[in-house]
Design a protein that fits this description.
7-stranded parallel β-sheet, 6-stranded parallel β-sheet, single chain, Rossmann fold, 16 helices
Length: 387
């Protein structure tokens, strides 16, 4: 099978990367269970696979929020390489796609020259209604959600083509030699800096609660604070028109003092692990219906409680008073932060037992078999004639 990770970040990602983290968690488990996996991803991807399609030289996350006339070619260039790989290799019997809208549209247009397709929907399904209200997979392209709450918000036409929801899983924690927590407690926000993720709300809630806050995640695809400052000081830099950069500059940066509230940029590996294991709470004050929330699962498997707004999948992940707290507003989030010390880390950790990489992989294996049974094999004669 071919797993399409999309054009935005390498797999595994060097820092932030929700979809890419899911792919990096899933592929090794699939291979362990005997699946041959060809990975389609950008340059810099180091994940082991049985075959590789390098679609673009490097990740394009910086352009994901650019105006359509500056970004539309990215996804299509990526899919052009995917299509070429599928035409060249008739032994690929299934595609597991993770590229929003463009992935299923292009693969469906290939008709029976493409293998059957399962796409995982990682995003808010209230977007792109024109596509989802009319798209017809014609019995060859099917979908999986990442949560039931996400799929419930989808247009009826899309819901009819969703086979199931598969909860997200994350890799196990990295072992660290140092103690888990030291110094004054802090809350952590681990997310791309964008208004939907609520970093400004987090900063104000922590100020109310008298709690330190660490913000970790890129701004408009930029991981390094020094680089961001340099680029925002250049009036000719394309970053000036980016909505996430504007959110940072106008609503978040004024709250960051380098002491009580810090932004550390994008993090990965041991640095990310230390931040997670050192936090006394993960703060997730989202303003949108979060579909999957890998960061929440990462915290829970480490015994770190989660304080979140009750939107999207979060009420199904956060059990109030057991592994975290849910609150609707800034005052409620601040009150919850004051109570996280009452929660038992062992109970928090135990609440995440059902979200293992093996469970996710086995759920997808069942869906792959169902897709193949529903769609039938690809037409190798059409594949050969298109080369």
């Amino acid at each position: 099978m071919l797993v399409d990770a999309g054009p935005w970040l390498p797999v595994p990602p060097a820092g932030y990367g929700g979809i890419e983290t899911v792919v990096a968690t899933l592929v090794p488990e699939l291979r362990r269970l005997g699946v041959r996996v060809v990975l389609a991803a950008v340059g810099g991807s180091a994940l082991e696979a049985d075959g590789r399609v390098t679609t673009l030289p490097h990740g394009q996350l910086e352009r994901v929020t650019a105006p359509y006339n500056r970004s539309s070619g990215v996804a299509h260039a990526h899919m052009q390489a995917v299509v070429a790989a599928l035409r060249a290799d008739p032994s690929i019997d299934l595609v597991h796609d993770h590229l929003e809208v463009v992935g299923p549209a292009v693969l469906a247009a290939m008709g029976e020259a493409a293998p059957p397709v399962l796409q995982t929907l990682h995003w808010d399904l209230r977007k792109h209604r024109e596509f989802y209200e009319t798209f017809d997979g014609r019995g060859r392209v099917f979908f999986a959600g990442v949560s039931d709450s996400q799929v419930e918000r989808a247009p009826l036409n899309l819901r009819r083509q969703v086979l199931a929801s598969v909860p997200l899983a994350v890799p196990p924690p990295l072992p660290l030699p140092a103690p888990r927590r030291s110094g004054e407690p802090y809350a952590l926000v681990l997310a791309r800096v964008t208004r939907d993720k609520g970093q400004d709300l987090a900063a104000r809630a922590c100020r109310r609660a008298g709690r330190r806050l660490v913000l970790a995640g890129p701004v408009a695809g930029v991981d390094d604070p020094a680089e961001l400052a340099r680029r925002l000081a250049d009036p000719a830099d394309p970053l000036q028109g980016d909505p996430d950069a504007a959110y940072w500059r106008e609503e978040v940066a004024p709250l960051v003092d380098g002491d009580r509230v810090r932004w550390v940029g994008g993090v990965a590996g041991e640095e990310k692990e230390r931040l997670l294991q050192g936090a006394d709470a993960l703060l997730t004050p989202v303003r949108w219906a979060e579909p999957g929330a890998t960061g929440v699962v990462e915290a829970l498997v480490r015994g770190v409680p989660v304080v979140a707004t009750p939107l999207g999948v979060l009420p199904s992940l956060v059990e109030d008073g057991v592994n975290g707290f849910l609150a609707d507003d800034e005052e409620g989030l601040a009150a919850a932060l004051r109570r996280v010390g009452s929660l038992d880390p062992a109970r928090v950790r135990a609440s995440a037992d059902r979200w293992t990489p093996e469970a996710m992989a086995r759920s997808y294996l069942a869906l792959y078999r169902r897709v193949l049974a529903l769609a039938g094999p690809r037409r190798e004669d059409l594949t050969a004639s298109s080369r």
